[in-house]
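Late entry, evening session. Most of the bench is empty. Finally got around to the prediction I had been postponing all week. Sequence below, unchanged from the version circulated by S.P.
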Amino acid sequence: MRMLDLKRAGAVLALMGVSLTAPASPASAHDDGGVFQPIVGDFVIEGAGSPTGRSVWIRVVDADSGAPAQGVAAAASTGGGTSPLTEVGLGYFSGDVGLAPGRGSVTISLRSMPGGLLIRKFTRSWTVDVPPVGERKVVAGAGKAADLEAAEHSPVRTARAAAAEKGKNLAVELEAVEDRTLASPLYVSLHAEVKVRATGALDPTEHEVYGWAVDESGATTEFVKFRPLDVVDPGYAAGVYGGVVILPRGGKWTMNADVLELQRSPSDPPIQILSGQLPVERTGPSLQRSGAAEDRLSAVRANLTNTIILALHSLAAATWGAILAALALLAFQRGRALSPWARNALERHLDGLVRAAWSLAVAVYVTGVYNLYRESPYGVPSSWVELQRLLRLPFARPYFLALAIKLAGYAVLLYGSTRLIAGAKATTRAPRSRSVQPFTRTPWSQPGNSGGGGELVHAAQIAAPVSSPATAHRFWVLLPVMAACGGAIIVCVTILKTAHLLIEVARITS
């Protein structure tokens, strides 16, 4: 099987894991956990008029649960064109629409917006007798003006107004960057820089940035959440975000970047601050050469040094665990679980085992630190604030949680190894239950001959001393704890590898 096939198989398995383990998002807002199914509950044409038309407002709710739509883009189309409707909050949208008195058609269309609900495509038209200016017309629903006024004074409305004022002082600049690892020219790698408009300096405040594209016909791509590049690469300054937008076909496209307030919880509505655009074009022979990048990706590229260090880390950890197990057998109840031959062999090599245990512990620590800095997908956070930013990235929470548990388990094993070494040394220094003088008899000495300088005592006659109740109790507690930590480390290593794979898949798919 080619390396590329292995990568694809791993990606499929990882995406299956994502579907099973990913937390619920705002898109799963109604009862059955599917796509938000919008309906227009209220549609009102107000009596107030303006040079651009009549004031119109609608209320959008979920068809299943009745929950208000938040984070949805709404527009009203008439014979005079299409007018966007501004989200007020709590499911209400309002704006001026080009309507003249008389009979006409109005089409309301709804779509998802970056960071908002994943909704089912909605388009509905009404034939309306538009009244003269000054008269109000309820096209659908109850049309209670008091409910609209309540939405206009809601905290969400206040937050949107504050975000709009904040956006006046900021600017976002989009740049298409070359990435030769991408499989096709239709994969557009973008950097978005959020800057302070007055000074041109990068704004270090953390935001959520989404990228997407629209073509000349109005067709749009999927929304892609950009990552703060300073978190994954120290070479970038705070305020630079990056991601890959996938175009379905060639042609002229307008790349968009929407900057949103940071969502503190998945249920928070998206609050847009500002947006930026960049025109791109993908045409010509470059589209026929898209397979060349895939051939480059299929080539095996690995860092030999990192691979060797990772193998040494695993080998040192396994050997260290085996030595700790041998020391535990020797120290627990003075080695009674061992045969005389095995106990004697361990005692003879105890000094070498102790030196090996300490050497391997140091090797595990050194190689572990190296792997942490060189192989960690998100790097090592240097502060609590940076850790909080890292935890918002895909699969960062299970990765760092497993890493923390693994390090804690290693610390417990390191402490336990000192107790095991002390217990094993105490076993070898313990006095025998029967004193034995130096053996000076010859094999030809006769039984009962008192000329010998000592007495022959068989090994079976020498019983290992019984440890004190306090010492036995400590080992009864220590050994299960160390065994549990060893098992936890194995589980955490599995989680770390799985999370690492999912992080790489998320990078590819984003």
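Two things to note before I forget:
The longest helix spans residues 469-509.
The two ends are 26 Å apart (CA to CA).
Will write this up properly tomorrow.
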